[in-house]
Specification:
Largest sheet: 9 strands, mixed
Strand order of the largest sheet: 3-1-2-4-5-6-7-8-9
CATH architecture: Alpha-Beta Barrel
CATH superfamily: Aldolase class I
CATH class: Alpha Beta
Number of helices: 7
CATH topology: TIM Barrel
Radius of gyration: 17 Å
Number of domains: 1
Number of strands: 9
Amino acid sequence: MSRMMRLRNTVNNELKFPVCEKFVSINGEGRRAGQLAVFVRFRGCNLRCSYCDTTWANDGSAPAELLTAEEICGYVRSTGVKNVTLTGGEPLLRPGIGGLMAALNDLGSSVEVESNGAVALDEFCVSGIRPDCFTMDYKLPSSGMEDRMIGANFDLLGSGDCVKFVSGSEEDLNRAFEVINERGLVGRCGVYISPVFGAIEPRRIVEFMEERGMNGVNLQIQLHKVIWEPDRRGV
């Protein structure tokens, strides 16, 4: 049986996903920033970043409703919104998530998966399963998680994907500059630098980009934290 068939076969009404929240809002970051999207946030994460703003969803005991792929697809269909963002926590940790991705693709959704860079992407890159967009983090030194990054993931990214560097210090900015150049990311995928909220001024990132001549790199502010209260959920 092919890998794709195995993943598709996980879509059944006995397999349930722990969903902490689901809602429609604008996408706050990445290639689709400012566009409407349906968000489905899954419970659980394999990292513990120092600046994480969704710690409430990371623990295995976090409140969640258990939904089948059919129920998730039904909710997405009911919104009438084409963009779908699977997030967490870390959505790729969920057993059967590839099957859900395939079902959403079949639904005609434009699927984005937000991943933390510490889960191998290869099994989710097969035809029929692969989302339109991986928005992958590279965790910089201030996160405390850089040693968990999987370098091979970079080789699987294409023009529709992006890498996000959440930076909170000068050390972070210097490391982002190194990784962007070492991996030749500009021109191959989208590249974004975002400030750790409250830790570094966005203007310092702009200055750094100017000092280093970082053509093709995007500064990005988390729009949802500007429009609403920074700690508000469901947006």
